[in-house]
Amino acid sequence: MQNFLDPEHLRAGSDFVHMVEGTLLSVAALMALGEVKSPSSWFRWGWPLVLCLTGFFLPLYMFLHRGFSKADSQQVQLLVIAGLICVAGLYEMVSHSREEMETWGCVSGLLFVVIGALFCVHTQHGSEGAMRYALLFHRILGSVFILSGLSKFMYALSRKAYLGYVWGFMLLMAGFLLASYREPKGAYEPQKVTITSEEIQQLMQR
After folding, report:
1. Is the distance from CB of 189 to CB of 34 less than 8 angstroms?
2. Which of 116, 152, 187, 200 is deepest in the core (most CB within 10 A)?
C-alpha cells in the first residue's frame, strides 16, 4: 500500500505522526513531573495512560493510512518502538497498583533506553542528504531517550526527587524533539542509480 503514496504525502504523514506522538509524549512528561511533586495525585496514573495512548496511536495510523510491510525495516522498527512504549506505560500502571513492585519501575527506565537505542539506528528513506539529516536528528532524539531512561531507572531505585525531575525533563525534551521534527526535502524520494556504459559491458561479460 505504501508504494502507491507519493513522497510528498509520505512526508506530510510522517510530520503529522511526529507532531502527535511528540505532543502526547510531552503531556506524559508534564504529568510525570507532576507526580514527582505530588506522588499520590492523579498524575500517578495519568502519565502511564497517556504513554499507552502514545504507543497505540502509531501502529493505528500506520495500518489505517500507510499499510504495513514486513519488508520495510523502518516500519518494523516503528512497530517495535510503539510496542515498547505501550509496555512501559502498562508496566507503570501495574507497578503503581502493587506497592511491592514500586521499585520495579526501573524496568520502564530500561525500556526507554532500548527505545533510544532503536532511534539511534532508525532506518531512513530518501536521498543521501535527507537520510543523513534524519539519521543525525534521530540519533540526538535517541540519546535523549537513553538519558531519560537512565534517570528513570535511578529514580525508581532511589526515589530521590531531583532524579525524578531529571527524568521528566528529559522525557519532555524527547517529546519536544519529536513534535518539532519535519521530514527534510528528499525524504522518501526514490534514489536514482546511474550506471556507465563500461559498467554495462562488464555486467554483460559476466
Report:
1. no
2. 152
Q: How many domains does the chain have?
A: 1
Q: What is the pLDDT of residues 42-95, one digit of tens each?
A: 888 899 999 999 999 988 888 887 667 777 888 899 999 999 999 999 988 887
Give, to the nearest 10 degrees, the angle between helix 43-61 and helix 7-37.
Answer: 170
One-character DSSP codes across 46-87: HHHHHHHHHHHHHHHHIIIII---TT-HHHHHHHHHHHHHHH
The amino acid occupying position 38 is S
Write 26-31 long-range contacts (CB < 8 A, 24+): 26/172, 26/175, 26/176, 26/179, 27/175, 28/54, 28/171, 28/175, 29/168, 29/169, 29/171, 29/172, 29/174, 29/175, 30/168, 30/172
Cell numbers of 22, please? Answer: 511528540
Q: How many CA atoms lie within 13 A of 104 on its CB side?
A: 14
Residue 7: CB atoms within 10 Å: 18
State the residue range of the domain holding 55. Answer: 2-205
Largest Cα separation within the chain, whole Å, is 75
